[in-house]
TrEMBL record, chain A:
Stored Gene3D superfamilies: MetI-like
Record InterPro entries: MetI-like, MetI-like_sf
Chain segments carrying region Disordered: 1-44
Family to which the UniProt record says this protein belongs: Belongs to the binding-protein-dependent transport system permease family. CysTW subfamily.
Protein name stated in the entry: Spermidine/putrescine transport system permease protein
Regions crossing the membrane: 56-77, 111-133, 140-160, 195-216, 299-318
Organism: Micrococcus terreus
Location in the cell: Cell membrane
GO cellular component: plasma membrane
Main localization category: membrane
UniProtKB/TrEMBL annotation, chain B:
Keyword presence, Transport: yes
PROSITE patterns in the cross-refs: ABC_TRANSPORTER_1, ABC_TRANSPORTER_2
Pfam entry (one): ABC_tran
UniProt biased composition (Polar residues): 1-12
Keyword field: ATP-binding, Nucleotide-binding, Transport
Top-rank taxon: Bacteria
Cellular component aspect of the GO annotation: ATP-binding cassette (ABC) transporter complex
InterPro entries the UniProt entry points to: AAA+_ATPase, ABC_SmlMolc_Importer, ABC_transporter-like_ATP-bd, ABC_transporter-like_CS, Mo/tungstate-bd_C_term_dom, P-loop_NTPase, Transp-assoc_OB_typ2
GO molecular function: ATP binding; ATP hydrolysis activity; transmembrane transporter activity
Family matches, as SUPFAM superfamilies: MOP-like (SSF50331), P-loop containing nucleoside triphosphate hydrolases (SSF52540)
Region (Disordered): 1-25
Protein name: Spermidine/putrescine transport system ATP-binding protein
Classification via PANTHER family: SPERMIDINE/PUTRESCINE IMPORT ATP-BINDING PROTEIN POTA, SPERMIDINE_PUTRESCINE IMPORT ATP-BINDING PROTEIN POTA
Length: 327, 400
């Protein structure tokens, strides 16, 4: 009750502040001052909860509740003689066994593709982040330019960019032509609708998610530590191996998670760049079950399996490379 | 496991007895420019092996740049650097037999204290690195904190880890870049004597960069005072203090009263004395203590070399200063300011024609002198010094 009042009061304050004319800095300062004077000490903690509550309510409504709905749906059964897409509430755990039996290859493939894409992103992205954050230190313009270039693709739709990769990897495209000229690809082969294309698309689409956290981390790298490494008989490579890279682990960890998790659930890349035989990812299966086949329990069960599997993998990964013993 | 370590420690003890004495450092016309800015002007310098050498100067004087060039972290614009006779000018830092204690310590935050100390040993593939790291952690009395992370240590402890991390490699030259700058006064004094003890114990060549003149004088065998990219004067702390050769050194290393005047002749009645005419006063100066013996000079005298007594007490009392050559300088003035610091009192005395002079007096007797009191100042011509009259008498004042 009182928390609700608080929230409303805060919302009013926020509104009033937003409404106050922009140059009127004095207005908001005055308001803050009055707050400080009238607000008793003990209410500060409550104000904190008040500020958090919109987020909590949002999460409750649009995350926690849907998860339970999903869980419930995954246990529904199709009553005999029901229409397509008609299910009845039940506790049919067998749904899990059925989808797992039917789609374990797609599930494993998803993780495999996501892992490949993550490793590729790391290999391609780390040097990019290092270049921008460390090598170009003091060249603010170049740093800014490269960061903009990195983020610029986001101005175009994800689907469009993935579609563009179809052109890039097309049989008449320069990639295939070049590879064929160099005899690195047999004449009849093509790259479109192969797993190479899907992984390439995943790598491309998630690269910024790898680069940005590593960049943010490396930006704070104290160059004096690199000098200390050099001073203590470590050459450039050894300094990187023993100082720079271990210290950037929080960024690497964040980047790999931000790449691996969405990549393993992705369906756009596989749908656009893959085929129906050996590139299908679990996201595609879930999407088609929900949208086309209207097998809601199956789709929900697969979603749940994917979620739990990712949770387990991520927990193991964070336990192994976690940031706990970093500063 | 733990017995192994103990065994290692025993084995390694003789290794340190071998005495890796330091090496001589030679800078031959070494210079460094950043664009148009000449951070270090062509510099010649020789630091004998095993010496505790201090580079003293205000910030921006080029002392840290000089140190970084020795470490290899900065490439000289010109000149040659030799360590123990070997040319190292072109060597990268990791191939030089020097180690640095950085101003910010630069400890690796992701490694434990022991891993930090062992870093250099492991890079050089020293086999008993564990034992050696332990040994040097004990040397700086941090053995019990070996498994902590640097962030869990106090500033003084971090400083000692940085010292152990550099020393454990037994470099031919240890470079210290304002290593005590971040410590508070008390810890700083404590670490000064600690550093001095360790230097004596390991016998390495230490090159210590600092802007703290007291620190430089307390620790170093030789102090070089740097200003604007060049060494102004170099010598034992006592000599530098006693006989500064430039106004900058006179003011930066301790304090000085500098009075401009003109040499008018040799002093009457005693040999080797110069007579200096300052506005309204004839002051004497030991000719051997003057940079130039003709023309315009700056006559300098340290505040503690001046004796002060209330005006008019001479008739009854004994002279406060007896000059070595039987003569003294004597001027009259009026006290303008008195600061009492306990063991001593600092007076500012306005002397007509000479301006304000600073005087330190020990509080030996109960004499109370207040602002406005007329006083007589005396000093021994053999304790004064003469500088080039063309110099700025305020050079180096307040610089740090």
């Amino acid at each position: 009750m009182s928390a609700g009042t608080e929230t409303r009061a805060l919302a009013r304050v926020a509104q009033a502040q937003a409404a106050s004319p922009q140059p009127g800095e004095g207005g908001s300062r005055r308001r803050r001052k009055t707050n400080a004077v009238t607000e008793p000490e003990g209410r500060r903690g409550k104000a904190g909860y008040g500020l958090v509550s919109p987020g909590l309510i949002y999460l409750l409504l649009f995350f926690i509740l849907p998860v339970f709905t999903l869980l419930a749906t995954s246990l529904y059964v199709k009553p005999p003689g029901a229409d397509v897409g008609q299910f009845a509430p039940a506790l049919e755990f067998g749904n899990y066994a059925v989808v797992l039996g039917g789609y374990w290859t797609e599930l494993l493939r998803s993780f495999w593709f996501a892992l490949l894409a993550t490793v590729l992103c790391l290999v391609i992205g780390y040097p990019m982040a290092y270049l921008i954050a460390v090598r170009l230190r003091g060249h603010a313009f170049l740093q800014g330019l490269l960061l903009v270039l990195l983020i610029a693709p986001f101005f175009t739709s994800f689907v469009l960019r993935t579609q563009a990769w179809k052109q890039i990897l097309a049989d008449q495209g320069f990639v295939v032509q070049t590879l064929k000229t160099l005899n690195l690809m047999p004449d009849g082969a093509s790259l479109t609708t192969t797993s190479v294309a899907v992984v390439a698309g995943l790598t491309y689409n998630f690269l910024p998610f790898m680069v940005l956290p590593i960049y943010a981390n490396l930006q704070g790298l104290d160059s004096r530590l690199l000098e200390a490494g050099q001073d203590l008989y470590a050459n450039g490579v050894t300094t990187f191996r023993t100082v720079t890279f271990p210290m950037s682990m929080p960024g690497v960890l964040a980047g790999t998670l931000l790449t691996f998790i969405p990549a393993s659930g992705d369906f756009v890349n596989a749908a656009i760049l893959g085929n129906n035989r050996n590139t299908t990812m679990i996201g595609q299966v879930i999407e088609s079950k929900f949208m086309r086949v209207l097998d809601y329990p199956g789709a929900a069960a697969l979603s749940f399996i994917l979620m739990v599997a990712i949770l387990i993998l991520v927990t193991l990964y964070v336990r192994r490379f976690g940031t706990r013993d970093l500063v | 496991m733990s017995t192994d370590t103990a065994q290692d420690t025993l084995d390694s003890t003789p290794a340190r007895e071998e005495e890796s004495r330091g090496s001589e450092l030679t800078l031959d016309q070494v210079s460094k420019s950043f664009g148009d800015f000449h951070a270090v002007k062509p510099l010649d310098l020789t630091v004998p092996a095993g010496e505790f050498f201090a580079l003293l100067g205000p910030s921006g004087c080029g002392k840290t740049t000089t140190l970084r060039m020795v470490a290899g972290l900065e490439k000289p614009t010109g000149g040659h650097i030799r360590i123990g006779g070997t040319e190292v000018t072109a060597l990268p830092p990791f191939k030089r037999p020097v180690n640095t204690v950085f101003q910010s310590y630069a400890l690796f935050p992701h490694m434990s204290v022991k891993e930090n100390v062992a870093f250099g040993l492991r890079r050089r593939k020293v086999r008993n690195w564990k034992a050696q790291a332990d040994e040097f952690l004990d040397l700086v009395e941090l053995g019990h904190l070996a498994d902590r992370k640097p962030a869990q240590l106090s500033g003084g402890q971090q400083q000692r880890v940085a010292l152990a991390r550099a020393l454990v490699n037994q470099p031919e030259i240890l470079l210290l870049d304002e290593p005590l700058g971040a410590l508070d006064m008390k810890l700083r004094r404590q670490m000064q004597s600690e550093l001095k003890r360790i230097q004596t114990e390991v016998g390495l060549t230490f090159i210590h960069v600092t802007h703290d003149q007291e620190e430089a004088m307390t620790m170093a065998d030789t102090v070089a005072v740097m200003n604007a990219g060049r060494i102004e004067q170099m010598g034992a702390p006592e000599d530098l203090y006693d006989l500064p050769r430039t106004a900058f050194v006179a003011n930066f290393l301790g304090r000085s009263n500098l009075m401009s005047g003109t040499v008018t002749g040799t002093g009457s009645g005693a040999d080797g004395l110069l007579e200096v005419e300052t506005s309204g006063h004839r002051l004497l100066l030991d000719a051997s203590r003057a940079v130039s013996t003709t023309g315009d000079v700056l006559l300098g005298v340290r505040p503690e070399k001046i004796a002060l007594r209330p005006a008019g007490t001479r008739a009854g009392g004994q002279p406060v200063v007896v000059g070595t050559s039987g003569v003294v300088n004597e001027v009259d003035g009026t006290v303008t300011d008195v600061s009492f610091t306990g063991v001593s009192t600092e007076y500012r005395v306005d002397v007509p024609g000479l301006g304000e002079l600073g005087v330190f007096a020990q509080n030996r007797d109960g004499t109370r002198i207040r602002p406005g009191d007329p006083v007589e100042l005396t000093w021994d011509p053999a304790r004064a010094f003469g500088l080039d009259g063309a110099e700025d008498a305020a050079a180096g004042e307040g610089a740090a």
